[in-house]
Amino acid sequence: MGKVVAGVAIVCAAAACAAAAVVVSSRMRVRSQRRHARNVLQEFQEACSTPLPRLRQVVDAMAVEMHAGLVSEGGSRLKMLPTFVDRLPHGDEKGLYYAVDLGGTNFRVLRVQLGGKQGRVIKQEYEEVAIPPELMIGSSDELFDFIAKELSSFVAREGDGFRPVAGQSREIGFTFSFPVQQTALNSGTLLNWTKGFKVVDAIGQDVVAALQTCIQKRGHEMRIAALVNDTVGTLAGGRYWNEDVMIAVILGTGTNAAYVERAQAISKCGNVLPKSGQMVINMEWGNFWSSHLPRTQADEALDNETINPGEQGFEKMISGMYLGDVVRRVLLKMAQEAALFGPNVPRKMLEAFSLGTPDMSKMHADESSDLKVVGNVLRDVYGIENTSLAVRKIVYEVCDTVAERGARLAAAGIVGILKKIGRDGTHSKWKVASEQNHVNGCEEVGSPVASECGKTVVAMDGGLYERYSKFRAYMQVAVVELLGDASKDVVVELSKDGSGIGAALLAASVSQNGRK
Ligand code: ADP
Ligand code: MG
Q1: Quick check: helix, strand or coil at residue 240?
Q2: Measuring from atom 5 of ligand 1, which residue has the nearest CA?
Q3: By the 8 A CB rule, do 206 and 189 touch?
Q4: What is the pTM of this model?
Q5: Ligand number nearest to the C-alpha of 130
Q6: Is the distance from CB of 236 to CB of 499 less than 8 angstroms?
């Protein structure tokens, strides 16, 4: 009997030991996996790092590339496109103007009644329509006819308070946020698509003529007066209210920048320079590239799977279309190599663009002690239940790393522009004044007044900048870090919906009836 009891006890002890061993080994496995995930994170963080010296190299590279792009066609990956906008709105424009804004995910139509310096924007209305995905990769006719149709139904609903100037047709500012080679303010040839569009037969076409034809087919007497990029629209919209606005940057689905350049600096334009002595340049900075940009394996893999590999390198590191997917790729690596989300890799995580930047920013905004929101997003997007705090922390860190890198690089881009126009604090004030003359808002060359250039305002727009507060904060910190003392003269501010209304304002400022 004693032997039986002893035997049972031994068996039980052995079973308990085995169970304990299983528990211990499973804990050890989880720990080692977690360690592996943390190593992946650390490696990624190192590859993404943007210490000040590196950022300064990006700043310099941006300024150098800008210069090269202005000197000759194809001289840089930055297209530095002349826009033929040689004067920006002042505030005295009057009348009814329309804008059509084709930017990316959304398409907008807008009307605005302008009342001159006193009345300013008396009334405005807009409508936003999602672009049917099939039209983004369909034919040119279908795309422009869709825009004309939406515009036409919007015009049909023009209500009280909107009055075109008597005897004038309604004029339109057309915001078209893709690379266009302009030949005049109201004509331009599409060079290539970005942001997921691929309407092949539109490349090489005059996009103004294409839209104008579709509008006329619908029986409307409307004239497209100005073709502008969204950044140029934002610049115009910002300048309408604040004469210190010199630069506009969009951080939305894609990214781009425009600024006011001295006409003489645009050597590739030869003799056809505007009399005003200045011209707005559409940089198409999404295509900026420099060996100083911190590129990781995740960026390379993302680039290879886009429809425009090798292009828009800067955009793929800093804009809303891509940030979420960089995060997804790092999480996927952690899932595959370190079983971060359990033994199986969540199927949906294999899908490109399954994690949107809004999801990423939601997780990144999580201030709760248990990172509840991070857990919820992982559950809602990927069906991952019951994540531990340790896992959530790792996911949070990945979001933080991708956002911080993107924001600091965007800041370096802005400071690069400031450097190019002599507003980064490294030029002597007198030199800046005499070089830039009234282009930068200074009235008289070399005079005491001219040495006080005052503030430089950077007008920002785009869903990413507007809605991703941690991105915005990282950007601001990096601008101050880079500019040092000179940062007190630089204001980076949201200029909401400038792109739409800015195009209407430009249409007004170039129209015969715009300035009385
Ligand atoms: P578009 O660039 O298409 O003209 P927007 O300027 O409105 O349009 O920007 C939309 C983009 O902004 C989205 O594609 C997304 O990447 C980003 N975005 C929107 N909401 C958020 C958010 N809450 N957090 C971070 N990014 C966001
Ligand atoms: Mg836009």
Answers
A1: helix
A2: 463
A3: yes
A4: 0.88
A5: 1
A6: no
